[in-house]
Design brief:
Shape: elongated
Number of domains: 1
Strand order of the largest sheet: 1-2-3
Number of helices: 2
Number of strands: 5
Largest sheet: 3 strands, mixed
Bound molecules: zinc ion
Order of helices and strands: EHEEHEE
Helix content: 25-40%
Radius of gyration: 16 Å
Length: 113
Amino acid sequence: MARGFECGDGWFEVVDWLSAKIEAYAKLLPDQREQFCPEVIQVKEKFGGLRFYLQYSDQTTDGWITEAEQRASRTCELCGQLGELQELPRRQTLCDAHAGKTRSPRIDSNREG
Ligand SMILES: [Zn+2]
């Protein structure tokens, strides 16, 4: 996947998961017609949620996309921790720390493991 990756690193795992599924699915398709190539053409954050755009989609890929979007809606876009949609100046899915809700002035220097 090369083009149009426009979202935070925290969602990498979700994007990676979906990309792998779609890639494997594309290989299983018996007929590789040009119009039937479920390749991810764009991944972006929109209104605080993750959005995938495929060159071709069907019920199977739509189901995975829905699952991936739901996962992203519970994942901080910046760090991958548990997050939720925050109504900041603009809508973003963030953990409490990245949403500025925790009192600790230090957010980034406290990483375990
Ligand atoms: Zn975060």
